[in-house]
Amino acid sequence: MLNEGDPRSRCIRCNTCDGYPCLVNAKSDAHICAIEPALEYPNLTLLTDAFVSRLETSASGQEVTAVHVTRNGAEEKYAADIVAVSCGAINSAALLLRSANAKHPRGLANSSDTVGRHYMGHVNSVLLAVSKCPNPTVFQKTLGLNDFYFGSKEWEFPMGHISFVGKLDGVALSAGAPAIAPGFTLDLMAKHSLDFWLTSEDLPDPDNRVTLDRQGNIVLSYKPNNLEPHKRLQAKLQDLMKRQTKCDIHGHDCHQGLFARSLYLGERIPLAGVAHQNGTIRFGNDPKTSVLDANCRAHDVDNLYVVDGSFFVSSAAVNPALTIMANALRVGDHLLARMK
């Protein structure tokens, strides 16, 4: 929430924007831009410390009749004409699987046996480049590059998206550094780094899935795929970073410039990095191969909607957040029309 023309702008231009909560409530995140404004309306109630354990259906299994919740250690039950699940692709799938009953033995709305399947989270990696000259930028993440999204002269297939990580600091670097690395070294390295985030599409594989073990714990099984385009994207970026003008201070050895860093430290994001999760409750026109219809309503349960990243049938090669938001607004219009 930065207003360049107003010295009283809520944003104070600090360097801990990406990946950190904002202590002056000036970050354009879901909490500030959606939840807080929505709570001003009298017809919305937000319950915290609440765990939805399962959804109960009528005897026919065709509508949800109760939402079972554990809140502050007490069991509660809620009912509504329409139930919208938005727990994120992993937890939404887990909730439907936990809600299995006689009419839905494989999990709620799972006649297609696709609930939890086709999990995608992107092929992501961070590429850190270091130069002799410092990189004093604060809002580094405002730039991105899609020149090779659909391929290049050397590779005719899509490779993905190149963007920047919010400026790294020594604390962030310590997560992937050896334990013996001194803090002042990491701080110095961060001051001289240009930090790239690379995203390539992973493909929907039915065996990449969310399941529950015998104790009801979530199990995420995932085998990476479509790795060659990501390797090509990394190689393309590294090649471009070598094509530089000379630094006035250090000469060509500094590699000063946007693609001018001579040290590459690439690291794939591990399975636990599920920020881009999508695809476990896919939508489609055929109830035999999808869980939701085009409006994200369950084929098998008339009053059940799933409105988060679960509905994706492919992951594309960019952060899914804006698509999730756009779809939620679209489904919201549909629900308003249904309730009239």
Notable features of this structure?
globular; alpha+beta; 340 residues
Helices and strands in order:
Blueprint: H1 30-38, E1 50-57, E2 64-71, E3 74-78, E4 83-85, H2 89-98, E5 123-130, E6 144-145, E7 161-164, H3 170-174, H4 183-191, E8 193-200, E9 209-212, E10 218-221, H5 227-241, E11 263-268, E12 304-306, H6 321-339
Parallel strand pairs: 4-12
Antiparallel strand pairs: 1-2, 2-3, 5-8, 5-11, 6-7, 7-8, 9-10
Largest sheet: 5 strands, antiparallel
Give unreliable regions as ranges: 256-264
End-to-end C-alpha gap: 36 Å
Strand order of the largest sheet: 6-7-8-5-11
What is the tally of helical segments?
6
The helix/strand series, from N terminus to C terminus, equals HEEEEHEEEHHEEEHEEH
What integer is the average pLDDT? 88
What gross morphology would you assign? Answer: globular
Q: What is the structural class?
A: alpha+beta
Strand content: 15-25%
Helix content: 10-25%
Characterize the structure shown.
With 340 residues, the chain is of the alpha+beta class. It has three domains: 1-46, no CATH class; 48-118 and 277-339, FAD/NAD(P)-binding domain (3-Layer(bba) Sandwich); 124-268, no CATH class. It is 20% helix and 19% strand. The protein starts with 29 loop residues before the first helix and ends with a helix. Residues 256-264 have low confidence and may be disordered.
Q: Can you summarize this structure?
A:
This protein has about 350 residues and is an alpha+beta fold. It has helices spanning about 30-40, 90-100, 170-175, 185-190, 225-240, 320-340; strands at about 50-55, 65-70, 75-80, 85, 125-130, 145, 160-165, 195-200, 210, 220, 265-270, 305.
